[in-house]
UniProtKB/TrEMBL annotation:
Superkingdom field: Eukaryota
GO cellular component: nuclear pore
Residues covered by the NUP210 Ig-like domain: 29-70
Protein name: NUP210 Ig-like domain-containing protein
InterPro entries named among the record's database cross-references: Ig_NUP210_2nd, NUP210-like
Length: 75
């Protein structure tokens, strides 16, 4: 990607590498969530097939779904 400042004429160049997401990691600070507690912040990290971390996935849409533990155990 190239960009040029129209006022100064200065140009910059940036390499952009695009790859497939191989794994997604959910980062959190607690192992239990309680309905009456303050909300917990979750972060997602995506990795390619080589284990490299994607630097910008915050603009990808995703949807959280909470399931009953008994339902998850059956699968």
């Amino acid at each position: 990607v190239y960009a040029r400042d129209i006022l100064t004429g200065q140009s910059v160049r940036c390499d952009v590498i695009i790859d497939k997401i191989q794994t997604i990691e959910i980062v959190y600070t607690t192992t239990r969530l309680y309905l009456e507690d303050a909300p917990e912040l979750f972060k997602l990290r995506a990795h390619d097939q080589h284990g490299s971390t994607f630097s910008s996935i915050e603009h990808f849409p995703y949807e959280w779904k909470l399931l009953n533990a008994a339902i998850v155990d059956e699968q």
